[in-house]
Amino acid sequence: MACQKLGSRADVFRKQGQEWYCTSGLPSDITVVVGEQSFHLHKFPLLSKSGLLERRIREKIDKGEDSWVIDLSDIPGGSKAFELAAKFCYGVKFEMTAANVVHLRCAADYLEMTEEMSEGNLIAQTENFLTQTVLRSWKDSVKALQTCDDVLDIAERLQIVKRCVDSVATRSCSDPDLFGWPVAQYGGPMQSPGGSLLWNGISTGARPRNSSPDWWYDDVSCLSLPLYKKLISAMEYRGISQEIIVGSLNHYAKRRLPGLNRRKSISDVSNSLSMTALTSIPSEDDQKYLLEEIDRLLPFQRGVTSCKLLFGLLRTAIFLKASPSCLSNLERRIGMQLDKASLEDLLIPNISESVETLYDVDCVQRIVDHFLAMDQEAGGASPGLGEDGQILASPSLVPITMVAKLIDGYLAEVAPDENLKLPKFRSLAAAIPDYARPIDDGLYRAIDIYLKAHPYLSESDKEELCRVMDCQKLSLEACTHAAQNDRLPLRVIVQVLFFEQLQLRNSIAECLMISEPLDGGGVSRQLAGLSIDEHHRTAGWPLATRENQTLREGMDTMKQRVAELEKECTAMRQDIERLGRSRSAGKSRFPFALTAKPQVCSTKDKDAAPETSKTAETASRDKAAVVKGGAGGDGTPKVKLRKHKMNLSAC
């Protein structure tokens, strides 16, 4: 740190408790009170340098007061600044540095120590040192700017803040290697070209090692928020890149918001400890104000601010109960680049007392809504279909496809929460458009986990939840798992079986199409010389089409038969209940009540029972025939229909 020595006399000031005395051999004739400290001085050295003290002393002489006590408690810089000003009046030696020049300059202005009072007065000395030495050094400029907090109003009036900010902003926008600034002293010692360390700070042409655009982050993070905001504004005015400004904001926020360091890595432990030692932890109100100001300073532009920083600020804002506008802005910023987020980022703990869920699902829902709205504003739309009915790939679908995969993973993480209600889970799952999911395996996994964690759901609720899933977009592995999943509704299992067989048929057909000759013009000539096996392979595609159509008709018939059997079972149960009630009315009035039940369910009856048995056997044979043609050999549909038949016989 640069310094300038003023004065030539030895130090004659002595302090005893809160009292300062000038031991020059003469008794003091004036007392200056600054706060809790008193300075017993002599009026003539002060009169020759300070216009304010001269005016105060003359007023007391004119009034004939015997008390020579002058109160200067409102002097900028306090007792320390007045002590240095008094030493300057007495010509006592002291050092003027970047740490005290601002306070000394403001105190000199307050005391009116101008050139009219004395040539080479304190105002001229401080201005010269500030302009010629401090503002030409990065380190001294930052230090002088940091000391402006206590005298901010006067420092702004004297243009000290503006000059320091301009100096820091100009140097931060430049490459430190061009000027040989001693920046490396913050990260380690500098080395000479020969490899030896610099001695006593003397430059030998060495360059700082590993200089990067973020070399100044740690230096400016010691500034107070008002000064830091002025510095950021000056940097933006000079055209510094938004990425560098965001990096500085990130460093500044992590140093003053302890909540952002909760997910730090092991390598950052030492840095966090040093930051904590240098700065005291602010109160929650100060942290909330700081966070809201940082939100205003962040550029509202996609891709500039990392999702990790935005999610960290959002968690801290929720914990500190920041303003709704701050929370909304952070959610909107995250929504702009949700495709760059990770699953860990979305797992925001819920601290609300009114909601019992483990994670804040409502917050994620709002973020997804912001993303979809901005995607539509950016021109995003549902993709077109090709001639074969397949979705056409488009680069614009990459972000929303990544978000769909991210939300499916998030749903699987929050699904085990027993307090997560079905409408909230289904709303988040249905928020993603159908075209954003090329495959629904991730969504099926989340639904299966939710059904397992919520076994009390009714059949209608399960069907409503499964409607958000498209069974046609399940892979063969997912279809195999779903066909054996007892937690799924029966209708969903039937759909899965159908589409599973359809996928198998399509796979076979694709293999047959690939094996066909690619030369369409020579087909007629080649068919003449084909062998019997080649001819059957060529004719395989029409055969697969017919079998596929037969399978589709068989599955539709099976669906109708299952519905009819359910109706018959319901009617039979109603008959049994009516017969039971009639039997309780009395045997004399209904003598046939004892034989009513065998007439409905017994297979030995000659009138009603054979018809019922025949109906059940016919339905079972129809269902078995359809399943046999479309089950693919795994036996799963047969097991389910056999169980259904056993339930009918139990009636």
TrEMBL record:
Residues 548-582 form a coiled coil. Residues 28-98 form the BTB domain. Residues 214-503 form the NPH3 domain. CDD domains: BTB_POZ_NPY3-like. Pathway: Protein modification; protein ubiquitination. Residues 601-651 are annotated as: Disordered. InterPro entries: BTB/POZ_dom (IPR000210), NPH3/RPT2-like (IPR043454), NPH3_dom (IPR027356), SKP1/BTB/POZ_sf (IPR011333). Belongs to the NPH3 family. This is Uncharacterized protein. It comes from Digitaria exilis.
